[in-house]
Specification:
By secondary structure, the protein is an alpha+beta fold. It has five helices and eleven strands; from the N terminus they run βββαββαβαββαββαβ. Helix 2 packs parallel to helix 3. The two termini are 27 Å apart.
Length: 202
Amino acid sequence: MNEQNFYLTIGQPSSEEFKERGSRFIAYAYPIGSTDDFKKNLQALKKEHPKAVHHCFAYRLGIDGNNFRTSDDGEPSGSAGKPILNQIDSKQFTNVLVIVVRYFGGTLLGVPGLINAYKTATALALQTIPAIQKPIEINYELHFDYTKMNEVMMIVKQSNCTVINQETQLFCLLRIGIPKARLEEVLYKFKELVTVEITKIP
């Protein structure tokens, strides 16, 4: 199996707590598909834990390795966001967000102590959920006449493509993600339906 055709992620959220000298570190792991998902989860947690002193996080999106972000949220630089991201990367996960909520317990832990606490809380949260393998998809846009709808949808279903969005009028617009491993075969099938226009979404 070609590794490049799949990526690893998590299928469901999870949370675990780690305590260190009175401080509580609660790690929440989420599967996400976009930065909007990240923002919604962060806002929800800030509402759920308004008294927490820090909401540190890291996420990685996509498969090119360039889309990630970390935040120490007031902790010493490099002591929270980076250790969280390192745990996500050590599992080779993508499309994953981890937010660690910290309640201060009165004792300063120092930078090594903080790195260890954020790392451990994240590792615990990621250990409790099974990793899932998902096909890497390449997004395309299809334009076709309404009469072709059944044929197009049959190819989409048989090839395990993901429907991103769909606008149906007299002419239909369908955005889909095609599994990379089956790209040639799927494009060939669509090209055989002469009246279907297919363009790659950049």
